[in-house]
Specification:
203 residues; alpha+beta; Ribosomal Protein L25, Chain P; RNA Polymerase Alpha Subunit, Chain A, domain 2; 2 domains; 6-stranded mixed β-barrel; 4-stranded mixed β-sheet; elongated; Ribosomal_uL5_bac-type; rRNA-binding; structural constituent of ribosome; Ribosomal_bL25_b-dom
């Protein structure tokens, strides 16, 4: 088994909020490993090592867990990050097997410059795909190079890498290209907003 993203995992025997806090205080991340009809396994991962893997490979990173000397492939299914301190509070890990196809969301990255006088709006930041668990793309690129106003890029029209198929709604709007408003239109909009605000204050 490949040593890429290999990380040691210790089995947790204490549960609950207090136990989770102690795990984090010791520099580890509490995690749960589940899937393939196996009993959920409560683990702890080194926080720095796990964060480094996520920074490099994204939130769909495949892990080669070493638990009690045995190796197990797992996909990072979800990660809870503290909203203020930004440390990882908890992770859910999904057991995967070589050759298995999984459904997950990947980030959409818009590239290129649309035609002059246009405004590009990204309506969705992720795309639901199905692919080999060990060959998940970190992101999907959508090019708007030279695209004219009035163009709408739907999920079903996005070119996907070999072996990757769309798992979500093919009609979902991902990128919308519209005509950019003129300076005069923006000025009129600003004046209208100012007049409306003044009218409200005078009431």
């Amino acid at each position: 088994m490949s040593d890429v993203n290999q990380i040691e995992a210790a089995v947790r025997t204490e549960f609950g909020k207090g136990a989770a806090r102690r795990t984090r205080r010791d520099g580890n991340v509490p995690a749960v490993l589940y899937g393939h009809q196996a009993e959920p396994q409560h683990l702890s991962l080194n926080a720095k090592a796990f964060a480094a893997i996520l920074r490099t490979h994204g939130t769909n990173a495949i892990l080669n867990l070493v638990v009690d000397g045995k190796q197990q492939l797992a996909m990072t299914k979800s990660v809870v990050v503290h909203p203020i301190r930004r440390y990882i509070e908890h992770a859910d890990l999904l057991i995967v097997k070589r050759g298995e196809r999984v459904v997950t969301d990947v980030n959409v990255v818009v590239t290129g410059d649309a035609a002059a006088g246009t405004l590009v709006t990204q309506e969705a930041t992720t795309l639901s795909i199905e692919a080999d668990a060990l060959k998940l793309p970190e992101s999907i690129e959508v090019s708007v190079e030279g695209v004219e106003a009035g163009t709408q890029i739907l999920a079903g029209s996005i070119e996907l890498p070999a072996g990757v198929t769309l798992a979500g709604d093919a009609e979902a709007l991902i990128v919308n290209v519209i005509a950019a408003p003129s300076a005069a239109a923006l000025d009129e909009e600003g004046e209208g907003a100012a007049e409306a605000e003044a009218a409200e204050e005078s009431e």
